[in-house]
Amino acid sequence: MKSTDDERVVNNVMRHEYRVLTDKEKETMQMVKDQGLDLWTMFDDIGQSRELSLAKTKVEEAVMWAIKHLTS
Description:
Low-confidence stretches: none
Number of strands: 0
Helix content: 55-70%
Radius of gyration: 14 Å
Distance between the termini: 19 Å
Largest sheet: none
Oligomer: single chain
Number of helices: 2
Shape: elongated
Strand content: under 5%
């Protein structure tokens, strides 16, 4: 199921209530995730190190918090 799908509200253990997102919010969510993936992929392409692993984790965290903001 796509994260922008209205059906995402079904069977979620942690969040007891969801609101249906507007089309603009869905578009923004997809853009945040796409840009986060682009940055994560770029880091993956330039090598492997502890520092890059931390950078990729921080990208994932930033995307998570931005999406949490959009969906709250």
